[in-house]
Write a structure and sequence with these properties.
The protein is mainly alpha-helical and 160 residues long. The protein has helices at 3-14, 35-39, 45-65, 67-70, 73-99, 103-121, 130-140; strands at residues 29-31, 145-149, 156-159. It is 62% helix and 8% strand. A hairpin with a 6-residue loop joins strand 2 and strand 3 (156-159). The longest helix is centred in the middle third of the chain and has 27 residues, at 73-99.
């Protein structure tokens, strides 16, 4: 893991996730009005596929720029999984209990964190995009990204 990603993970660890849900304080996003509405995104195939697609794009662009670096993809995933599992468990525990959120919520947050970490890891050869510019920003500002309005990249991130 490069130092840039270590710093980013520490920033995420120090951030107060979900502290601004319900507030309408971000520009250029669409909002849902409750955890119930946010939870409706968990089974949303289009939203899930967008995240997976963006991850594949990072991997493909990295492969085009540096075969050597791209070969590290699987090793990085193995390195990040236990770190991120622990962080996500710790950072979501209170809101899961308080709101009675289903297991897919934690999986969704984990997927976001993995995308953020991988985009950071390759940001020196692949320009940061979806995870850094949208998803990371939402978490750092205390919101939960839970969907996309429109067809990406047109449209808006949906947050609670």
């Amino acid at each position: 893991m490069n130092p840039r990603t270590q710093t980013l993970l520490q920033t995420l660890e120090n951030a107060d996730w979900f502290s601004c849900v319900g507030k309408r304080d971000l520009p250029n996003v669409a909002y849902v009005s409750s955890w119930l509405h946010a939870a409706a995104s968990f089974p949303n195939v289009e939203w899930g596929n967008l995240g997976l697609q963006r991850g594949h794009i990072i991997e493909n662009k990295a492969s085009q720029k540096s075969k050597e670096r791209a070969q590290l993809w699987s090793e990085l995933l193995k390195e990040f999984r236990p770190l991120l599992n622990e962080m996500v468990k710790r950072k979501t525990e209170t809101v899961v209990k308080a709101q009675g959120l289903p297991a897919p919520f934690v999986s969704n947050v984990f997927g976001d964190m993995l995308g953020i970490a991988m985009e950071s890891e390759y940001s020196d050869i692949v320009a940061p995009d979806f995870y850094t510019n949208l998803i990371l920003d939402a978490y750092l500002k205390g919101h939960f990204p839970c969907g996309w309005e429109g067809k990406y990249p047109e449209g808006k991130l949906i947050v609670y």
